[in-house]
Request: fold
Amino acid sequence: MKSNPGADVFVILRSLRRRLFVREFLDALAAGALLATGLIVLLLGIHRWWPVPAALLGLNAIIVLSGLVAVGALLIAARQRSLAEMAMLADARGETRDRLITALGLAQNPPAPGALAELAQAECAAYLERTDFRPLIPLHPPRLGTWLVVPMTALVLLQFDATQRRLAAAAEAEQAQAAVAETVQRIEQLAKEARQADQKKPDEDLKKLAEELQKSAERLRAETRPEEASKSALRELSSLEEMMRELQRQPSLPDEMKELAKALGQLPGMQDVLKALNENNLAEAQKALEEARQKQEKDPAKAPEEQVKQTLQEAMQRLGERRRLSSALQKLAEQMQQQGGQLSQQAMQQLAHMLQQAQKDGGQKQSGDSSGSQNQMTLQEMIAALENMKFGDGQQGDQKGGKEGQKGGGNGQQVSVQSFGQPGAPEDKGDPSGNPSGNPGSERDFGTTATPFGERNANQDKGGELGLKGQLSQGETLSMMLPSAGDQSRAARRYKDLYEAAAASAQDAVQQENIPLGSRFLIKRYFESIRPQE
Amino acid sequence: MNDDSAAHVERFRSVFARVRDEMGKMMVGQTDIVESVLVAFFAGGHVLLEGVPGLGKTMLVRTLGEAVNLKFSRIQFTPDLMPSDIVGTNIIVEDEQGRKSFRFEPGPVFANLVLADEINRATPKTQSALLEAMQEHHVTIGGTQHTLEQPFLVLATQNPLEMEGTYPLPEAQLDRFFFKLKVLYPTGDDLHAILDRTTAVEKPTVSQVLHDAEEVRTLRQLVREVPIAREVQAEAVRLVLATHPDDASASASVKRYVRYGASPRGAQTLILAGKIFALLDGRYHVAKADIVKAAPAALRHRILMNFEGEAEGKTSDDVIAEILKG
Reply:
């Protein structure tokens, strides 16, 4: 028998504790790795459809995650176990019959000599000496480690998929860039021209226009979807066109209105009309003009007909000069259209020349609002050019539609704008005023309204209550105009509210009346017909 | 000294095995019952045997008495049995000169092995008379205390079928029994063996293994010397506490079906029985397995089921099995 048999149990238990530490560390590491790879797979899976921040998928994130797993595993494994706990653990795992815990207890509290406990201690020591306890805590690769194959395989597949999609995206981006390259170049050329015009004669509108053109070019350059490239080009051109229309809607009156105001201002009794025109209040101007006309009818002597004719003639001549320039632009647009939407170097030079000409004309006039008028002209000309370019681009994607749209172009300065609403474009039956036509896709080509519901019109004012005089009696009828579903779907809800409010009383009224049996069916059908659709 | 201890342990095993073998001559099958009765005998506890009549309960006690050479007595409990019928009484005797005096006439409880047959048929008053003898190992008659001879072992039986007109043992008295053993009906092979042994000309005889009570006391002392680790003892504590519905470690079924859990005597029983099982297994220390082995017999009569548990047919054995699982 050993002199200190209890010493062995300490060595054995400490050895087992070290093995358990390694084992638990490996197990925790495997579990952590499984969780981490699962998380990465999850993030990559999400990233495949919904992009997640790159910081979560980068190498740094993986390093941090690995570090966290390692530290976590270390913390789990480093949980200090007492020797008694180790003894109980080993006793529970092996057929030791609690010899380890007994040996430990007897070693820590040595029994009195001669007692049966000494015999038990010796028996335990002999058992410990002849038994190999290492199999109780085997060191083998963690079983969870085999499950790592699953997320690793998923990772490889996701990486492969990501590479394939990256290559495809690069090819698509290249294709998209090729599709819009020419448009981008042209827009940039226009932006350059606008900047030059702005430098020669600084104007806020031209500067803004140049910036927007440049931004449009950059946005188009960033387009990566080939199927959307042509649409994007059209969208950009439409937005540019809309922007220039906004620029046109300056507080000052258009040239025609100004010329008309000048002409009318020379006539006697037209002060109210002139004032209303200057305030841009067309309704008031119309009203004042009507009153002036009525006055003229009452007193024809005060209105020398020759003077009126002469004044109007001068106004028409001044307008004609503007229109000639517009006609020239229109011809240029047609020329571009005939060249398949290609804006040649010569066309560019002509466009630049017209811009310069318009600037010169504006300078010669030297009037207080001449620069504004000139810029208005420049803007309109550029609108026309953009329209033509748009048709040209549209022709690339949809040759027929573009050509027909161009053929439908009318006369005058706003020919390009009005061309969409012309009967010459049968598949584009949108309302020229910008309202939805009801035909799918017809509004898309306009791109001229700020909201998808179209511009405000008289229908917007519907819905108010109106008292109507009765035709057969003296009483009034309360009439309410309910907008239909086409007008922002307001009617359905309000009608439903109205119906629910009135249905009960209507039903009471019908029940109280003595209605012939033959008519009840009709009445019932009537009420069914006016019931709102659910 | 170690050699002496080893020799004592070896003798204990030898005696236990021989007594078991001698009892086995008369008791066919029922090896677990025999072993458990011997465990209780060497631990100094009493045993409550529950089983139908005719299963050899009386034979078991008689055989044990013969094997260990101890005085044996049998008391048939009936409703009209009085305490004095058990513990004895003072009677008037007249000497040769004609003088009369009281003399104590010991009852059947003054024996080393007492078989209390159908103990639940006696009134509580009579049962309580046995209670003092079982726990205190002495009886008090006429103000005089009479110590019982050691070793003293009560083996009580009760019939689980005929419950009419019986007086179930109160919890306090049940708690004084070391083990409660359920004597099961013998199998077919065992029945054949019983018939062969009891219907032949030659009947088996039982040899004396121990010669006096002093040997029994020595062996009982040896049992108590067996060491037990604190953590192993904690298993006994855990088991006992787990039977209490108010304890935090109690399971859901214990909380639902148990009214009262085991007393500290239950833990003492677990440890003492575990020590004997350890010696029988060739070890000098107690293992948890020894305590688990003793748990059903040591705890089943100490767990009082509530009405819901009885209504649903739950037994204390079910509760113990669940505790041992968890």
